[in-house]
Amino acid sequence: MNVYVSNIVMAALSFPLIAFVITIPYMVYQYRKFGSIPWLRTLVVYSFVFYLLCAYFLVLLPLPEDRTAIVPYAQTPQLVPFNFVHEFLAETSFSPSNPSTWLATLRDPYVYEAFFNVLLLVPLGMYLRYYFRRTWWQTLIIGFLVTLSFETTQLTGLWGLYEHPYRLFDVDDLMMNTLGAMVGFWMVGPAMRVLPDFRLVNEEAREAGMRASVTKRALSFLLDLLIAGFLGMLVGFGLAAAGLSGQETISVWTDRAVLLLCFVVVPVVTHGQTLGQKLLRLRIVRSDASRAHWYQFLARYGLLYLMIWAPFAALSGVVGLDPSTSGEMGAIVNFAAHNQTLLVWAWVVLMAAWGVSLLVRAVRSWRLKRPFVMLNGLISNTRIMTVAGVERERERRCVLDVADVAALERLIADDGTPLAELMERAGTAVADTVRLHVPDPAPVVVLAGAGNNGGDGWVAARALAEQDYPVTLITSDLAERIKAEPARSTALDVFADTAERDLPLRVLIAPDADVLIDAIDGAEAVVDAILGTGFAGDEVRPPYAAWIRAANRRRFEGSRGKGRGRHRKRALERGRHERGERRSAPMRAKDAPFTVAVDVPSGLSAQTGAAARPCLAADMTVTMLAYKPGLVATETNRWTGMVTLARLVDTKPYLAALGDELEDD
Ligand SMILES: NC(=O)C1=CN([C@@H]2O[C@H](COP(=O)(O)OP(=O)(O)OC[C@H]3O[C@@H](n4cnc5c(N)ncnc54)[C@H](OP(=O)(O)O)[C@@H]3O)[C@@H](O)[C@H]2O)[C@@H](O)CC1
Ligand SMILES: [K+]
């Protein structure tokens, strides 16, 4: 028993070292893959590393005294399955019919060793299922391979480090360990219903990763300093080889050249990325996310260099250091040494001003939830953004009027990609968004209007049903009575497909209020494909108004079955959120379904951003081809939620053509 404890203590003692070594690579990997690092993931990953460390120490320690030691019992592998049961029965007085022998059994080495062998891989099975999302048979194989690696390490005396096996290779261990992995797999199953789903955690991390957080920027800077330091060292060796190592001025200037290379030349070549930033997918851009010029990189990092070194150099002058000892900033130090009182004051004032500006910028970034801006960034008019963030910012700047989107659509169709194909891609993009947020098949309601926006809804419904999501599509009319094309042919196609392939998709035509509310109540996701860019007016006509009200009610007040309290009744009476009369956005109910709007939330004017009565409130809007003016106004995000763009095609060439066309007009 003591051996187990001391091995775990050993693991605990060596863990900080391992954690220290893996932290930077871990952070780089996470930032590259997800863009941000949720604490939950760090907790899981580091606890997993700690567990592996414990497991290996338990299996491999203690080591024999010396390389040639022969441990007698370990020399012949034990290959008889269930040998421990026979041995146990032979050696103890255990009798199933005699309860007084049961307690002693628990203290029997055969029993508790078997128990510990099972226990050893229980956490592995849990991690494999919960975090690594392995199936039972994958867990079985991995569990077996891990235990095989334990046993072979023992059999080969740490892969030849010791001349003889120092622990017994035992098939029973293989079986008990593997069983442990499976026990862990089954045990974690029920817990997974309450544990956070890592697919959603990843999705949130990706979203948060759009921002260039202070930690991410600091890490990229640290990486750059490490790279510069390494290059500086190489140059130092070169200088030494050339017999120039003793010369102070040369080394000062080569150091500066290395910094210039890393922080100015490299960004010029890569259009705004130092090597550290490239690694973490960051980019230096102008404050409007456009490409920065070479002199801005120079200003940004030149200022930083001065901001780091000048105060120290000046201070050392002020406090009367000998200018000749302070090396590279000698001139400043010299000047400072001769104008002490003046400089003390100038220094204090500057530092105070800098401190105040730092505070102001920190408070501003905290209150406005904007990234912190460094002083050198402010002066050089540059900032660091994530590559994805730059992309999104640029997309958001390319806003097309609704009429231009229609023109763009025609250009694309003339070029050989028909509207039906665009609709197919649009609907698939919406279905993908739903699947990202509701990863396991769960009931989905698609509200489909009679225009082409509804057509996108039909495609999304089929795509989800193909992935086993039980879908209820709500439509105001029979598919054949839809007037808009290609919505009509698409809907007919989906309808036929559903019957033919027996997809889990049911279509409700103009359902009454109760049926509608029941369907929405049971949904984990709602797709709003009622009205898109073709919507006009400040009032939504029936039946769509009722659909929007039902979706909003579910979103803000939970399902009908829940919370029938006084509070809820009052909220229903007021119903103000539906009429858009509330000043602040109402709270989303905890159990609200994930609501995604196709192209634009129904009731919101894509052109002006004005919300009609009622207007659907979505968690996310997937807009097609380009952002529309109504989606980028900040006041509209209470209806749109987060907006993402589904490009559908590479629009660049068409946008250029469209630009020419617009200019001609
Ligand atoms: N751009 C692209 O590349 C692509 C565009 N695609 C998709 O097409 C969508 C545009 O389709 P669209 O032009 O058919 O219009 P849409 O939004 O379905 O609305 C028309 C319906 O709204 C109704 N309606 C109007 N006002 C109303 C009111 N006040 N109250 C009630 N109803 C009202 C109107 O009824 P009506 O006036 O005819 O009685 C008609 O039935 C676009 O948003 C995108 O999702 C993708 O498929 C492919 C790529
Ligand atoms: K919509």
Automatic annotation (TrEMBL):
Residues holding (6S)-NADPHX: 452-456, 544, 599
**Protein name as catalogued:** NAD(P)H-hydrate epimerase
Q: Which family does it belong to?
A: Belongs to the NnrE/AIBP family.
Q: Which GO terms describe its cellular component?
A: membrane
Q: Quote the record's cofactor note.
A: Binds 1 potassium ion per subunit.
Topological type in the membrane: Multi-pass membrane protein
Tell me the compartments it is located in: Membrane
Q: What does this protein do?
A: Catalyzes the epimerization of the S- and R-forms of NAD(P)HX, a damaged form of NAD(P)H that is a result of enzymatic or heat-dependent hydration. This is a prerequisite for the S-specific NAD(P)H-hydrate dehydratase to allow the repair of both epimers of NAD(P)HX.
